[in-house]
């Protein structure tokens, strides 16, 4: 900053000195010239006064600016401190609430009325409920742990609970308890009691009831086109009761056909080491249609199930449609060793006002598949039956559906004199 220190006095002093040292010049100057010189000195003096005033104003402004800068620095420091305090508080609150962000619930509830018309038996009606809820936690970015509860008893293929008993309390059991690790690309590894991810053609229950949960370990891989599924499940893990294990494997491919069709097809091999073992569930002589030795009450065969499946998805008149087929043969049995199913679905009952209709025809020979795990509704459960399944569904709103399922079956094929079996189910279901 420019500062002037008494410049007028210096200039006047210099001029006076010049005048004293140069008397000749002074004598020689005319009055007019002296007047001009005095005027010049006066103008110079006024200019110097102006510069001094401006200098003082600049000094004052500089002092004020310095003061403002100091105040601004204090304000910035205060704001910074407050910002850091708020950030710390937000971080603390996030840490307190972050555990809730790693949890999620899912489940469903179903109310069912069903009626039976079975040859040589009185007609039967009953009301049943099914309630399921599962809590899933993200333990790490690659590990999930799930815990699910379901109504019903210890039946491995049903979580239905019949109403009645004078309003007695109903059972609630562990339905799911597992971990899911997806640390490898396109791969999931499971352990515990988990949902059955083995592909079911048309979501039909020819081999596996939808309520069955494998208990063991498994791996699932898919890159969007090809897929492979494998799992090992304990049928009985206690060596004191006859340890028994099963392996389930599948290989498949999803092929686009044109712009609106997709074919999913593949092969599977499932092995149950059951020969010589007793019944795993129910009474000692309850083998769910499979052949057994009546003297020892043990299975006669293992179940080495070779499976072929195909699903074709497409659009028809503006609605989704599917036709599917499934074929299974037990490689260990000598006879009554084949099962198959084929059917179609039309429509989709997911959103308000949507509907779906479906039909399935299937045949389950006595030793085609492991009877304990097949559809618990078709033919009353187990194997050794054939017939039709007619289905319909309507969505009142999203996640709220009315469903109808009608079974027209023949049961006891191996005997050569099967009985008629009819079963009607009317459901109201809710998902969340």
At a glance:
The chain is of the alpha+beta class. Helices cover 21% and strands 45% of the residues. The model is unreliable at 1-8 and 14-28 (pLDDT under 50).
Structure description:
With 432 residues, the chain is of the alpha+beta class. It is built from three helices and 19 strands. A 16-stranded antiparallel barrel has the order 1-2-3-5-6-7-8-9-10-13-14-15-16-17-18-19. It has a two-stranded antiparallel sheet with strand order 11-12. A hairpin with a 5-residue loop joins strand 1 and strand 2. Mean pLDDT is 89; it is low at 1-8 and 14-28.
Main sheet characteristics: 16 strands, antiparallel, barrel
Number of contiguous helices: 3
- N- to C-terminal separation? 75 Å
> CATH H level of the largest domain: which superfamily?
Porin
CATH architecture of the largest domain: Beta Barrel
Strand content: 35-45%
Low-confidence stretches: 1-8, 14-28
- Order of strands, main sheet, comes to 1-2-3-5-6-7-8-9-10-13-14-15-16-17-18-19
Radius of gyration in whole Å, from Cα? 45 Å
Overall pLDDT level: 89
SS-based class = alpha+beta
Question: How many structural domains?
Answer: 2
Sequence of secondary-structure elements: HHHEEEEEEEEEEEEEEEEEEE
What percent of the residues sit in helical stretches (DSSP H or I)? 10-25%
Shape: elongated
- The CATH topology of the largest domain is Porin
- Highest-level CATH class of the largest domain: Mainly Beta
Number of strands: 19
List the main descriptive attributes of the protein structure presented here.
alpha+beta; 432 residues; 2 domains; single chain; 3 helices; elongated; Porin; two-stranded antiparallel ribbon; disordered N terminus
